[in-house]
Amino acid sequence: MPLSIDSDLVHCKLTGLLAVRATPRSIKQADRKKMDCSAGAAPMGIPATLPKGGLDITYSYTVTFTENNGIRWSSRWDYILDSMPHTNIQWFSILNSLIIVLFLSAMVAMIMLRTLHKDIARYNQVKNTTLMLAVRPDVLLRAAALDSSEPEEPADRRKTRTDFRTI
After folding, report:
1. Do 13 and 82 fall into the same domain?
2. Same domain for 122 and 79
């Protein structure tokens, strides 16, 4: 596991850890009293199903400090930033979202326009009927004579006028 230290900070009697690179590795240990952690030691395999008694994993680590005069304190994050993939703008996703928003907005606008158009037409019809009755009241008398005894109800409403119960 190599570590890097800025040499300028070492001369100032200050040290700073600039980089850490770790390589994990499991080593199979047959005997706990005689452990072998060398590079040529056999790796430990972990079974897919754990044994009934459990599984003992012995772990250790080694730290190696490496002085690197090429890395300055001001550029300590460069290796992390260079290792990350650059963010690409997902133009297709943005365009797709924009089209969906426009389509849904157009649908809502169309529904609102149809509703407003019907309301305005109904309002104009009532206004025209009121004006016609104000000009010719005899039309109202003729219409009342031709009409039955019950007032006309809208067809889309449920007739609940006579639907009641007394206790």
Report:
1. yes
2. no
